[in-house]
Specification:
By secondary structure, the protein is an alpha+beta fold. 50% of the residues lie in helices and 20% in strands.
Length: 442
């Protein structure tokens, strides 16, 4: 999923680009229209000047060149005029040897159009139909202006505007990214704090350095953490009290079983086995309450610290055996998505089982497969027959009575795995030859 910062960056950048493009299109259209209107206005002024310089003497029409602008004198100067009479054509000197193809117009009729002129350049032309009642003459007066110079000026102005807009666009986009980066620094701070919270380094989020918009969320999260911690502490205390409370009834039952052993040994043995199992479960829960009493509700299993801690503890527990525990851990995996207490119990049981059965080697592999994390633990012990692998997680069932245990460890592993949606599989280790245990975290 796209982050909020990336989404804002894309949206704001898109809006800026769209606004800049629309602005440039509107500016180009307005500039082009202004350029066209200015040329038409100039042609209308030229038309009036030429009409003022046109005289009729003795029925003949001529144009006084001295009254005209000097632009009409140099050849191909870019400004032209042409007077079409019934019997002759009067042209400006700037047309030189070229004659414009003009359609005769009725008196007072006007025409605005574009055509090719000298040097094959585009021209803007304006024609007006004239008549003289005194001389009984009709004529068509045309003025023209070369568009190449104006278009060059237009391109320079528009190019400058385009360059300035592009520089401003790049500057604004860079400003957006810088502002968003600075604005989202508190979110990065919260993300870092949450990582420390998951690793158990802190027990609450710091509120002093957070912006007002985020403080209510962090405060609510802290309150939820405090409430959850109290609930966990209360549950552990209740569990400890229950376990302590069971000790006295169990002691009384133990005495009764011992007395029963004199009269009915078989029944006493069966009851003794159940009492031993209950006693072990009580001791285990008491130990768990003591060990995990200070764990935070948001703490996750930290890799590789907690794995090495478990291995060091098991080396001491199984100090009578020389076990080499090897780790192959993907350095990008820093935590497992499981509460630290449950993770320590889950992996502790699996590693304890591997240490019990291993001859000399235990191997732990932690890697990524697509979107999931794969944990694989195997040993060089005797392994388990294929038809008995399904029995491993059945509570109270032990496949070999020669090794100490009560058949509860792997069943507890199964319960925790089901609670967190972890895929648990047992197989034969192809590398070490013993039991292989595979955990797939979602």
């Amino acid at each position: 999923m796209i982050s909020i910062r990336t989404k804002l960056s894309l949206w704001l950048t898109g809006l800026l680009v769209l606004g800049t493009v629309i602005g440039l299109i509107l500016f180009e259209s307005m500039l082009r229209q202004a350029f066209h209107d200015s040329i038409i206005n100039r042609l209308e002024e030229d038309l009036e000047h030429i009409m003022l310089a046109t005289h009729i003497n003795n029925g003949e029409i001529h144009i006084d060149q001295s009254q005209l602008s000097s632009f009409y004198k140099p050849a191909y100067s870019g400004r032209y005029f042409q007077l079409n009479l019934p019997t002759e054509i009067i042209r400006s000197r700037s047309l030189w040897d070229m004659q414009l193809d003009i359609e005769p117009l009725a008196p007072k009729q006007t025409r605005v159009w574009q055509a090719k002129g000298p040097k094959n350049n585009d021209m803007q032309l304006l024609s007006l139909g004239l008549n003289s009642s005194s001389a009984n003459v009709t004529a068509t007066l045309t003025v023209a202006q070369d568009l190449s110079i104006g278009r060059r000026v237009f391109s320079e102005v528009y190019g400058t505007k385009l360059g300035v807009n592009l520089v401003m666009l790049v500057a604004m986009i860079a400003g957006i990214f810088l502002i968003l980066r600075q604005s989202f620094k508190p979110v990065k701070h919260i993300q870092h704090a949450l990582s420390r919270l998951q690793e158990g380094e802190i027990n609450a989020l710091e509120l002093n350095n957070l912006p007002p918009e985020v403080q209510p969320l962090a405060k609510t999260y802290n309150e939820l953490l405090e409430y959850t911690a109290k609930q966990i502490e209360r549950s552990r205390n209740n569990l400890g009290n229950l376990s302590h409370g069971l000790k006295t009834p169990l002691a009384v039952m133990q005495q009764q079983v011992e007395a029963l052993g004199l009269r009915d040994p078989d029944t006493a043995i069966a009851l003794q086995q159940q009492l031993d199992a209950i006693h072990k479960m009580v001791e285990r829960k008491l130990a768990a309450a003591r060990i995990t009493g200070d764990m935070l509700p948001a703490a996750q299993l930290v890799i590789p610290r907690d794995l090495h801690s478990l291995a060091n503890t098991l080396h001491k527990v199984h100090r009578h055996k020389s076990i080499s525990c090897e780790f192959e851990i993907d350095p990008t995996i820093l935590r497992l998505p499981i509460h630290r207490e449950d993770g320590m119990e889950l992996l502790g049981n699996l590693l304890d089982n591997a240490f019990k059965w291993a001859q000399s080697r235990v191997n732990v592999q932690l890697s990524r497969q697509q979107e999931r994390i794969l944990l694989y633990i195997d040993d060089d012990g005797p392994g388990v027959a294929g038809d008995e692998l399904d029995k491993l997680t059945q509570r109270g069932i032990r496949l070999d009575e020669s090794v100490m245990g009560h058949g509860l460890g792997l069943s507890i592993v199964k319960e925790i795995a089901e609670q967190y949606g972890i895929e648990l599989n047992f197989n034969h280790s192809a590398r070490l030859g013993g039991l292989g245990i595979e955990l797939r975290f979602s």
